[in-house]
Amino acid sequence: MNFSREARHLLSSPWLARRAFPRSTLLAIERAIEESERSHGAQVRFAVEGSLHGKRLLHGQSARDRGLELFSILRMWDTEHRNGVLIYVLLADHAVEIIADRGAHAKIGDSPWQEVCREMQTAFSRGEYKKGAVEGIRAISQHLGRHFPVLKRDNELPDRPIVL
After folding, report:
1. Which of 21, 33, 73, 91 is the most exposed place for a label (fewest CB within 10 A)?
2. What single string gives the DSSP state of each residue in 121-148?
3. Could you give all domains of the chain from N- to C-terminal order, each with its CATH number?
C-alpha cells in the first residue's frame, strides 16, 4: 500500500478537477479537439479525474489502468479505423496518459505519446491547464495527421471533454 498516494486521493475533493479545468478551459479543449479532427481522420477524447476512490484506490489502480478502463467505457475502440486516442488526466497523481487504439498505436508507437504526456505534465505542474491541454491536443494532432489523412468528416465520438 502506498499511504501517501492514498492520502493524496482521499484528501482530494471532487472540486479539484473543476478548479483546474473550469468551463472556459473545457470549452477551449473542445474547440482544440474539433480543430484537431479537421486535420486528420482519427478521433480524440479528453477525460480528467480529480482522484480515485473506493476499490480503485484500495486496489492501487494506476493512472494507466484507469485510462484503459475509460477507453473501454467510452467505447473508444469502436472507431472505424481503430484510431481513437484518449488523453486521460489524473490530477491527484499528477499523471497524464495517452491511450491509443491499435491502428494509431501501430503507426505511431509509444515514444511520441510519452513525449506529449511529459510536455502536458510540465505545463500542468505550472498550473497551466488550458495551455497544456490545448498544446497537447495539437501535438497529438500532428502525429495523427501524418498517418490518418482526412477521408471523410464523420465525427464518430463526442469532442466534449469529460470531467469525472
Report:
1. 73
2. HHHHHTT-HHHHHHHHHHHHHHHHHHH-
3. 3-163 (3.10.310.50)
Is the distance from CB of 31 to CB of 37 less than 8 angstroms?
A: no
Against a cut of 0.90, is the pTM above it?
A: yes
Q: How many whole angstroms separate alpha carbon 25 and alpha carbon 123?
A: 14
Sign of the dihedral defined by the CA atoms of residues 122, 48, 57, 13, in that order: positive
